[in-house]
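S1.2 Input.
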Amino acid sequence: MERFKLLVKGIVRYQDTYLVVERWYDDRIFDPYQWEFLDGVLEFGETPEAAVCRVVNERTGLNVEVVRPLYTWGFTAGELCTCGIAFLCDSLSPETVLSEDLHDSKWVTKDELPETISNKNVVDDIRNCGLIEDFGIEDFGDLDLFVDPMDIE
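S1.3 Output.
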């Protein structure tokens, strides 16, 4: 039997800061509390966008608006294949009310993200999607990205 799980990750922005939460992992490891972004499981019949808004609200009390998808990831553990979609979300307020499974939260700048997030794969992902190092339309140089329909033969 094929087994899949779809996760959503909320990278929540408020003005020029990003929300990270501290979660308990395992008391058998050196650093059982680790800073991360919010994530959760997509429920049956739910869109990924609705799921990330629900997860953020359930775990922090924040109401957010999805800006755009940032990146995807995946891994296999045993017979379970897990895929995820990370979304950039905007919050209108910085005030959080954390769920019981979260130990703490804080708002950090883009420059502080690599120092705060200990999972190297997550730091690489947010760097590759341009969250840490801005990558805008001007980075494409003189390329004409917009093709006039009349130019197509």
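S1.4 Remarks. Helices lie at 48-60, 113-116, 120-128.
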